[in-house]
């Protein structure tokens, strides 16, 4: 008999999720915890990330640690990896979720803003992968999941920093997917459509976004937070063992148009 649903089981697996204090990061943390994984969540704010970790640990019973670590700081990324190894002895899964979005016409965006977005959204994930990969190579096992975006696949006006960074993550996923699979490590990306997270909440009532949701998203609505969990559990588990360098869109039909 083939394993079937057991392929999705994450019992005993260890996952790092960057930007795990809120939004999609905390939704995916709950999803992985419900499938049995132990977690190290990071974000820049110690109190916030500790509170999220404590809540998930209380709700699901798994070991969940919250730690302040900025993905753009190589020393803090090293500390993140060392903490995961000292607490759990291994790292099976890395979800590169931390990200920011600065919107505006190109002549309003400053160089510093453009570079900040590339730093968090591209350099950060690259640093995290570089840091965990030696442990994954030693174990000959690893599942790396990057949060790209539909905006890595299609364009949108007034989004030059964000679209540039997410396009880069699509290509980084493909390159890592090829480079690492000989070590038993896969790298895939989720390309979410619009989710009503703290990143998007301030813009939810703008005419631009309302028009866009109706005009571009076939399902004609924002995604619900739990709608990210299936893709995250799938890519974190052995259910996706023959996938590397793939983009999984969760976008209500946006890119099918
Ligand atoms: N919300 C969406 O509709 C959507 C769509 C497509 C892609 N994404 C991507 O999904 C990811 C999560 O988005 P979200 O909407 O949940 O965002 P969010 O703003 O709600 O949460 C982002 C998280 O990242 C953390 N973070 C930000 N900068 C950091 C840094 N330098 N170091 C460590 N942590 C940092 C924040 O503390 C927070 O925990 C991002 O990469 C985003 O680009 C989101
Ligand atoms: O206003 C924006 O820039 C968009 O709403 C993004 O935040 C998207 O939600 C997401 O990236 C979709 O792919």
UniProtKB/TrEMBL annotation:
Keywords: Oxidoreductase
Keyword Cytoplasm: no
InterPro entries named among the record's database cross-references: NAD(P)-bd_dom_sf, Sc_DH/Rdtase_CS, SDR_fam
The protein's Enzyme Commission number: 1.1.1.69
Enzyme class: oxidoreductase
A GO molecular-function annotation: gluconate 5-dehydrogenase activity
Family: Belongs to the short-chain dehydrogenases/reductases (SDR) family.
Name this polypeptide is given: Gluconate 5-dehydrogenase
Organism: Gimesia maris
């Amino acid at each position: 008999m083939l394993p079937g649903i057991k392929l999705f089981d994450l019992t005993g697996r260890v996952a790092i999720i960057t930007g795990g204090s809120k939004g999609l990061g905390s939704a995916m943390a709950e999803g992985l915890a419900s499938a049995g994984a132990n977690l190290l969540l990071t974000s820049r704010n110690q109190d916030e990330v500790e509170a999220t970790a404590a809540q998930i640990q209380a709700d699901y019973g798994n070991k969940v640690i919250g730690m302040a670590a900025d993905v753009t700081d190589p020393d803090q990324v090293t500390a993140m990896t060392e903490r995961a190894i000292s607490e759990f002895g291994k790292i099976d899964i890395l979800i590169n979720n931390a990200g920011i979005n600065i919107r505006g016409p190109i002549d309003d965006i400053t160089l510093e803003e453009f570079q900040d977005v590339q730093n968090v959204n591209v350099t950060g994930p690259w640093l995290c992968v570089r840091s965990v990969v030696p442990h994954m190579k030693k174990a000959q096992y690893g599942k790396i999941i990057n949060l790209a975006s539909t905006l890595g696949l299609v364009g949108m006006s007034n989004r030059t920093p964000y679209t540039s960074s997410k396009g880069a993550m699509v290509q980084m996923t493909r390159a890592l997917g090829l480079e690492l699979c000989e070590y038993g490590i896969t790298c895939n990306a989720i390309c979410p459509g619009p989710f009503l997270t703290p990143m998007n909440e301030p813009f939810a009532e703008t005419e631009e976004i309302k028009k866009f949701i109706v005009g571009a998203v076939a399902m004609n609505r924002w995604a619900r937070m739990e709608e990210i969990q299936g893709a995250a559990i799938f890519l974190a588990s052995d259910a996706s063992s023959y996938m590397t360098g793939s983009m999984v869109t969760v976008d209500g039909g946006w890119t099918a148009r």
